[in-house]
Amino acid sequence: MADMIKVGMADLNICHAPDAITTLGLGSCVGVALYDQPKKLAGLVHVMLPDSTQVRQNQNRAKFADTGIDYLIEQMEKEGALKSRLTAKIAGGAQMFAFSTNNDMLRVGERNVEAVKAKLRKLGIHILAEDTGLNFGRTVEFYPETGDFVIKSVGKPIRTI
C-alpha cells in the first residue's frame, strides 16, 4: 500500500513512486513540486516567504523560496535525481485577504509566486503547470508514478495539473 508523505508549513520532503506527497492549507504559501520523471522521484517544499535575506534568524531553509528550492534539490540529488532532468509544478500564492493592495507586506502570495518562478528560471528548471493566485487556499498532492499534481480547494472541483 502506497503512503502519503506529509509536508508541513515551511518544510520539505521527498518521495519515490508509488508513494505520493502532500501539503495542506497553502494560502499565501507556495507548494513547489520538483520531479525527476525517469527516477519517479518527487520533492515538495512548502514556501512561506519569498526571500531569506530579508529575515533575521532564517535558519529554516525550507521556509523561503530562495533557499528552500536549493535545499529540496540537494535532498533529491542524494536520492539520485539529476538537476538537469527536474521539472516543476507549483500551486498556492493566494491573496487571502478581501482587499487588494500594493503593500508588499500584504502581497505575500504574489511575491512568493514571483520568487519561486525567478528561482526556478535561474536554475533552468521548467515549470510545466501552475495553479496560483486568486483568493482561496489549496491542498496539493503530487504523484510521482504519473506526474499528476492534484489540487483541492474547499467548494471547488478537484484540479489535476
Q: What class would the helix/strand composition place it in? A: alpha+beta
Mean of all residue-level pLDDT scores = 94
Taking the alpha carbons of the first and last residues, their distance comes to 24 Å
Please tell me what the overall shape is.
globular
* Percent range for β-strand residues: 25-35%
Order of helices and strands: EEEEEHEHEEEE
Summarize the amount of helix as a percent range. 10-25%
Query: How many beta-strand runs?
Result: 10
- What CATH calls the topology is 60s Ribosomal Protein L30, Chain: A
The largest pleated sheet is described as: 5 strands, mixed
CATH architectural designation: 2-Layer Sandwich
Count of domain modules: 1
| CATH class designation | Alpha Beta
Number of DSSP helical runs: 2
Q: Kindly provide the radius of gyration, computed on alpha-carbon positions and rounded to a whole number of angstroms.
A: 15 Å
Instruction: Point out poorly predicted stretches.
Output: none
How is the largest sheet built, in terms of strand order? 1-3-8-9-10
In brief:
By secondary structure, the chain is α+β, with helices and mostly antiparallel strands. The protein is built from 2 helices and 10 strands, in the order βββββαβαββββ.
Spell out the key features of this protein.
single chain, 10 strands, 60s Ribosomal Protein L30, Chain: A, alpha+beta, 5-stranded mixed sheet
General description of the model:
- The chain is of the alpha+beta class.
- The protein has a single domain, classed as 60s Ribosomal Protein L30, Chain: A (2-Layer Sandwich).
- About 20% of the residues lie in helices and about 35% in strands.
- It has 2 helices and 10 strands.
- The protein has helices at about 65-80, 110-125; strands at about 5, 10-15, 20-25, 30-35, 40-45, 85-90, 125-130, 140-145, 150, 160.
- It has a 5-stranded mixed β-sheet, with no helix packed on it. Strands 2-5-4-6-7 form a 5-stranded mixed β-sheet, covered by helices on one side.
- The longest helix has 16 residues, at about 110-125.
- It is globular and about 45 Å long.
- The two termini are about 25 Å apart.
- The mean pLDDT is about 95.
